[in-house]
Amino acid sequence: MKTNSEKDILKYLFLIGIFIGPLFFWPWSAISFEIPKVFFMNRWIEIFAFASVTYLIFIRIQKEKVDSMLISLVLIFFLQVITSSLLGVDFNKSLSGNYYRADGLITLAHLVILFLSVVLFYRENWLVSTFKILAYSSILLSLWTIINAVFAFIIHKPLMPAWDKAVGINFGNPNFLAGYLIVSLPFTLYFYNKEPKIKHKQLILISLAVQFTAILLTRSWAGIFGILIFLLMNVVMKTSKNLLLTLTIILAFMGCLGLFILNHKSIQTPGITIAEGRERILIYFNRSQNWF
Question: Which domain of life does the UniProt lineage start with (predicted)?
Fold first, then answer.
């Protein structure tokens, strides 16, 4: 007989990982940004996968319906990546990945394992808890961003390095931070739409404002465009019941943004640093004309 507490252990393991992962930072590492985060996520995936297999063998908690086609497609993709790496010029490099990011086959294998664990064991009643955890994590990350900006640009005692007045905190690159904060906005909005109490809605609106502020502090064009697209999607989806019209408006707007990017002067002239290829070639440019 399976108790609720036994069933919940796997759920809590999953939620702990997605909460801590974005916030994880190990400043004592030689490379203190991507590498420690990848290390933490890989260890968490291993623990979650081991627990999932243990549950399958001893407790037999498993989804009633599994998408075998999706699993097949992901495994085929993974095999193609392995094959191309074996046929490439440096398999060892493909295995470990970039020295600064650890983005090789080992990390990809962990992501595939996480995918399989989620496909086989993630249950629908975890969904709201997952949304909550992602929203809380993003709000904490946003507060961290704002606090770091205050220390760096007002008090002039930065807690962490800043990229020419652009905040990246534990993500290192401000664009990476902006990307994570953008994709987590819908989770906060979900609770705003579901919340019946006005006071709670006001608190959630404040949380969204905090997230918007943090995204702007990254000084990332992608972050600004992401906010605009997020707001546009929210307005269009609330006012239009026509899915095709909604998608057309959003795609047209994204197309206009793309044209703006292609023609914008500061984007044609790259910023201060470009990380090029696996050898981490650093190319420096005059930053004075650029904003991002």
Answer: Bacteria
3-state secondary structure (DSSP) of residue 275:
strand
Highest mean pLDDT among 38-47, 215-224, 281-290: 38-47
DSSP 282: E
Exposure of 81 by Cβ count < 10 A (0-12 exposed, 13-18 middle, 19+ buried)? Answer: middle
> Hey, how many other C-beta atoms are within 10 angstroms of the C-beta on 72?
10
Within 8 A by CB and 6+ apart from 67, the residues are 119
Closest CA to 138 of 31, 27, 262, 226: 226
Phi then psi for residue 91, to 5 deg, are: -65, -40
pTM over 0.90: no
Give yes or no for a contact between 19 and 44, defined as CB atoms under 8 angstroms apart.
no
Count of Cβ atoms closer than 10 Å to residue 127 Cβ: 11
What gap in Å lies between CA 65 and CA 122, rounded to an integer? Answer: 11
- Residue 111's closest CA among 21, 12, 7? 21
Handedness of CA 25, 30, 36, 38 (dihedral sign): positive
Q: What would the mean pLDDT of 176-193 be, rounded to a whole number?
A: 92
Tell me: pLDDT of 68 over 60. Answer: yes
Which band of pLDDT confidence, cut at 50, 70 and 90, is reported for residue 232? confident
CA separation (Å) from 263 to 5, 104, 258, 272?
A: 57, 34, 9, 19
